[in-house]
Design goal:
Distance between the termini: 19 Å
Order of helices and strands: EHEEEEE
Strand content: over 45%
Oligomer: single chain
Strand order of the largest sheet: 1-6-5-4-3-2
Number of domains: 1
Number of strands: 6
């Protein structure tokens, strides 16, 4: 298994750093899935399948206090284009504790070899 992880703190000049950050993830996924997916919804629980076994799963949770803290989790998985049997999984987590506050993001990239069909379900 190959693993790489990063933790970032994201801020923007506009009023909604979380939505701006989620839009950046949507733009990246549009490139990776090779289709325009600007309207991809990351609220509640969602699952999307694309060509070439590319898959996006998303979860979101919030409290009853003006939707904060807001937490989003996104998983993108796809088979490796050049190594047969390798599966790449990127997991992105985002948390915003208060409206307009910075977004704490974590990005985890994992590469698996062998049978990991449970990640594609």
């Amino acid at each position: 298994m190959l693993v790489d992880a990063n933790r970032l703190f994201l801020t923007t000049d506009d009023d909604d750093p979380l939505e701006r950050s989620l839009n950046a993830v949507r733009a990246w996924l549009s490139i990776k899935c090779r289709v325009p997916i600007e309207d991809l919804v990351f609220s509640d629980e969602a699952s999307y399948a694309f060509a070439e076994s590319r898959r996006v799963e998303a979860w979101s949770t919030s409290t009853d206090f003006a939707k904060h803290p807001q937490v989003n989790a996104i998983r993108f998985s796809h088979p490796d284009a050049s190594v047969r049997g390798r599966l790449w999984v990127t997991e992105i987590g985002m948390r915003q504790l208060e409206p307009g506050g910075h977004v704490e993001a974590s990005i985890l990239l994992q590469g698996f070899r062998g049978h990991h069909t449970e990640l594609l379900i």
